[in-house]
Amino acid sequence: MYRIVLFDQRGCGRSTPLADERDADLRTNTTAHLIGDIEQLRQILDVETWTVLGMSWGTTLALAYAQMHPRRVNALVLALVTTTSRREVQWITEGVGRIFPQEWDRFAAAVPPALQDRPLVDAYAEMLFDSDSAIRDHAAREWCAWEDAHVSLAPQHKTNPRFEDPEFRLRFARLVTHYWRNAAFLQDEQLIRNAPILNGIPGELIHGRYDVSSPLDTAWRLSKSWVTSSLRVLKDSGHGGGESLFSAVVAATDLFSGSEAAREL
């Protein structure tokens, strides 16, 4: 038996003001601010230590939090592992276009000539805050179409229905580009370089073989330096998830809840 604590990060879900608002200001929406929010939440709930779970971008945030506050973390469950390094951002916005050339051509073609000298993530970040609502909506639509294109090679992958909501599209795209263009506001390769800080903390790394959005090498490199972690590679899963992924996440949290290593999630 364990208690689950979920929260919406700044700018999304029930955390206001929302990132899709006309005058949204993301200057106080950084990884350092989010880590502070998590730690404040722990204190408010009077939790001494807890297991931290993250998926996709959440793994970046979970790793950053755990490396900042290792004494507060009993265990980590990380699925669809990313560190949001500049190398990873370059791959997911440009390099992976080699696998999806038609979809990438459309993604790149949506950038107007005035912004074509910039990295795609920077160009989209500016388009998403353009004063013209038509430009903002077009950028959000094209960004989310690209997300849906590359998120998985798994045959059973389905598109994300939430991308049909224009408010959600804009909110999602603004936050993603904000963090990606700034490499999560971390020093490059910081989370891999500082992985030994986590030695002594048990961890489960869960990653899909079909994940082309975030190739397996990030999870592999992390596991090599974080020696008290174990890496589980799912043969039928991509970054879009799937039954085996969620079953593996539940099994990992169940494992830690039954040991002295974890009493909170």
H/E element string?
HEHEHHHHHHEHEH
**Order of strands across the biggest sheet?**
1-2-3-4
Strand content: 5-15%
Question: Which word captures the global form?
Answer: globular
Structural class: alpha/beta
Radius of gyration: 18 Å
> Helicity, in percent?
40-55%
Main sheet record: 4 strands, parallel
Tell me about this structure:
Helix 4 runs antiparallel to helix 6. The protein has helices at 31-44, 57-68, 86-93, 101-109, 120-127, 133-150, 166-181, 190-193, 217-225, 243-257; strands spanning 50-55, 73-79, 203-208, 229-234. The protein is α/β, with parallel strands linked by helices and 265 residues long. The radius of gyration is 18 Å and the shape is globular. It contains 10 helices and 4 strands, in the order H-E-H-E-H-H-H-H-H-H-E-H-E-H. The N and C termini lie close together (10 Å). The model is unreliable at 260-265 (pLDDT under 50). Helix 9 links the parallel strand 3 and strand 4 (229-234). A 4-stranded parallel β-sheet has the order 1-2-3-4, sandwiched between helices. The protein has a domain at 96-184.
